[in-house]
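User: Please predict the structure of the protein below. I'd like the answer in structure-token form so I can feed it into my own downstream comparison script.

Assistant: Understood. Taking the following sequence of 263 residues as input:
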Amino acid sequence: MPNHEENKPLDGVNIVITRALDQTGDETDVLTNNGANLIFYPSIETRLHEDAEEFIKDLQDLNNFDFILFSSVNAVRFFIETLEKLNIPFPQNCKIGAVGDKTAAKLKDYNLTTDVIPDNFTAEGMLDVLSETGVASKKILLPQSAIARPVLKEGLAKLGADVTVFPLYQTVIPDEEIYREAKIELHKLDSCLFLFTSPSTFDNFLKIEEITNAPEYFRDHKIAVIGSITQAAIEKAGVSVDIIPDKFTMENLVEKVLNYYSK
């Protein structure tokens, strides 16, 4: 009898991944192994903020802080790398908070233990945990993206904390050569599943493609996202979100995608 290759759930599915190239991990192998055609179309790139080094120098003794809260893998990476460049040791006496398992895992890569991880991987989730812990009069450092939402800062201030925020890194549109081939490939396809992992990946994609009518552009496409904040940003533009995992990680998003196409 002839051998027929078993059908895979993602056969014929074109998946556009818009996150930064340096954040694309092994999770995408699962998509490929299940038949997907992947188009890596990075619409964002993260860079150290031009004022970050000076700000860290001005902080003087980091041991004065009771907490340092990291909301992303990028925040961990840029903060630690900048400390190392400036020959400043990581403070020994402050507690560390991480929004998300990936952020905590990145801290572990630097032999740092996370003290606080919310079940809900959002700024709101971190606030819920710290409101129970009690942070009144505590000095808290938030090294963040230049476009981070003010939710965590404002929420901590309402809880009575002494909050210091500074722009550690910035999110920009990559140079054209980074996404040029993916853009050409995308324009040959009629239907795709787009993966957006942050509002910036969506907003920058619209800018790169010069899309003025998002609902019309995405009419024949599917949308998968990480996080309720990303979902809200996309829906605000009039575009429906088809897939969102309960837990805001790439692994869970990949699982949701497989389940969606296995129906």
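That's the full token string. The longest strand covers residues 162-172.
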